[in-house]
Amino acid sequence: MAYSLAFEPGAEAGYAQLLSHLRQAQSAASRLEDRAAVALIETLERLCLARAGDVGAAEVRARAVGGAAPTLSVYLLGDFRAYLNGRGIVEWRKKSERVFKFLVCQRGAAVHRDQLLDAFWPDAEPQAARNCLNVTLHGLRRCLEELGGPAPASGFVQFADGCYRLGEDLQVWCDTDVFEQQVRHGRAAASSDVSRAIAHYELADVLYQGDFLRDDRYEEWAIGTRERLRTTYLAMLGHLGQLLYDTGRYAQAIACAQKILERDDCHEEAHRQIMHSYSAMGQRALGLRQYALCRETLARELGVPPTEETERLAEEMRER
User: Fold this and answer.
1) Within 13 Å and on the Cβ side, how many CA atoms surround 300?
2) CB-based contacts of 56, cutoff 8 Å, min separation 6
3) In a 3-state reduction of DSSP, which class is residue 183?
4) Rg for the chain, CA atoms, rounded
């Protein structure tokens, strides 16, 4: 979904001023080596450009950063969205959009033409498939060019030695990159700075707006990445919930575990996290209710009882 606003006189200048302040804050955070703050400010910058809408975003960027290289902002977690210099990319054909997603996800390396043909036209005759690819890429380039603003010197999509890739001069920001970065930073900080680890994990949680390309469930090339990121997210929620519990934030730890159960209602460790948290809050009845829910869910979905660890925790709660 592309955002758009009805601009008041001088709104472009207002957004440019806001973006300028965010860049100053980013500079200060960088000097402090606060990577969590830097990542959050980067996200706010892109939100500012997105909220500026298609009418004035190009002018906002021009006022704020002058002749900076074109920036592509792509959101792959949850609802797919893409912005070029803050302007929503919406007027493209479905096949062009699918190839664009593939190129974004493979942007670290050149993509051979045969990879694209196999991924998107596996049943077509070779010449027909090449023609379809050429038409699709022509439409993709044209869609990006028609958004206005300066094109990268290398073009939006490069072709060399039978391979395609996004233009070298195109700055690409992707939510999956920042999500994984924040998870890594959280893990690194967990043993030495719990507050910082929690901050990194919470930002990762905000970024994970849904499964990777969730509207493209039948794209085989995306399945592995979707499962990997989903597994990373659930593990991160588990680590975050434990840190929240350890620091006495029991209600937040419960909310964290409930997010896990929304995606995997048989996740026994998340059930135990809720039981532990309710017990620490002096609400054993709610903890035992969670145990009952865990037992019923496991029996219904998997046909198995809770593990000894869960049974032992429930017994301890009954005896208190």
Assistant:
1) 8
2) 7, 11, 12, 15
3) helix
4) 24
Total residue length of the chain: 320
Consecutive H or E run containing 225: helix 220-246
Nearest CA among 154, 145, 74, 68 for reference residue 106? 74
Q: Which pLDDT score, from 0 to 100, does residue 10 have?
A: 45
pLDDT(36) > 70? no
The region, left, alpha or beta by phi > 0 then psi within -120 to 50, assigned to residue 317 is alpha
H/E element, 243: helix 220-246
Given CA atoms 214, 220, 225, 229 in this order, what sign does their dihedral have?
positive
Q: Which two tokens stand for residue 292?
A: 């009952």
Query: Does residue 287 surpass a pLDDT of 80?
Result: yes
Single-letter residue type at 25? A
* Both tokens assigned to 129: 């498939």
| pLDDT tens-digit series, residues 88-111 | 888 788 899 999 999 999 987 899
Dump strand ranges (E) for 36-132. 71-75, 81-84, 87-88, 111-112
Q: Which residues contact 67 (CB under 8 A, 6 or more apart)?
A: 150
Its pTM stands at 0.78
Q: Is 214 exposed, middle or buried (0-12, 13-18, 19+ CB in 10 A)?
A: middle
User: Contact at 8 Å (CB) between 212 and 224?
Assistant: no
The residue among 68, 142, 149, 72 whose CA lies nearest residue 103 is 72
Distance CA 261, CA 266 (A): 7
Token pair, residue 115, equals 């990879």
Sheet strands side by side (includes 81-84): 87-88, 81-84, 71-75, 171-174
